[in-house]
Structures are given as structure tokens and as C-alpha cells.
Amino acid sequence: MTIRRFGAEGGTGTGGQHLPFARAVEAGGWLRVSGQTPMRDGEVVEGGIVEQTTIALDNCVAIMREAGYELEHVTHVSVILTDARYFQSFNKVFAQYFGAHPPARICMVADLVVDCKVEVDVTCYKGD
């Protein structure tokens, strides 16, 4: 089995910090996208949960498309919110992306190491 790594050289995090992990890894038709936050060019985009969710999901979709996957290939999403009160607003944005192809999902509340409201990772599958 071949393993492909996307962005294996690592990205840039807040303050120019080098991130020592791949954006995504593909093996056997599966793609795992690393957790995405509402960052652009290595900096968190300030805003409410709707804006931050949109950016985090857009970041996931951009990485998926780079690897040749689309939203209908998403099988599971993990979500971390920093406040349970964000849940309903997050769900509204989530439904705009996945309404036609809802994946399995877990959503939890926890602190994040980046000062933002949400982090999202996705798992995709595309058979031969």
C-alpha cells in the first residue's frame, strides 16, 4: 500500500511557528485531514463562530481537493468547540457543507492550543 503525504514539509502556525505534521495523509483510499482552525497565512482570523467555522471547513475542503477528494467522500468529522453555546450556530454552517452527504461526526467542547473557537478534522474514503 502506498502512503501519500500532503504538506509533509509542515506548515506555518501562529507566530511563524513551523508545524511538524502533514496537512493530510492518504492510504488505501482513505484520506485523513489534520485538524483545521480558522487560519489564513498562519494567523487566526478573528470573528464569530459562523465565520470561524466557515474558514475551518473551507481549509479542510481545500486540502481534500488538493488530494482529489470532494465533500461526498467525507465519512467522519471530528469537531472541537471551545464553548457549548456555539453548537447550534456551528450546526447551521455544517449543514450548508454536508446537507446532501452527511457524514458521521463527533462534537466536543475543549480548550484549543490556538486562540480560536473551533477546530475540525475530516476523514474521507474514495474506493477504486
TrEMBL record:
GO CC annotation terms, alphabetical: cytosol
Pfam family, one: Ribonuc_L-PSP
MF annotations from Gene Ontology: deaminase activity
TM stretches of this protein: none
Family matches, as InterPro entries: RutC-like_sf, YjgF/YER057c/UK114
Coiled-coil parts of chain: none
SUPFAM superfamilies: YjgF-like
PANTHER family named among the record's database cross-references: 2-IMINOBUTANOATE/2-IMINOPROPANOATE DEAMINASE RIDA, PROTEIN HMF1-RELATED
Name this polypeptide is given: Reactive intermediate/imine deaminase
Native organism: Pseudoalteromonas amylolytica
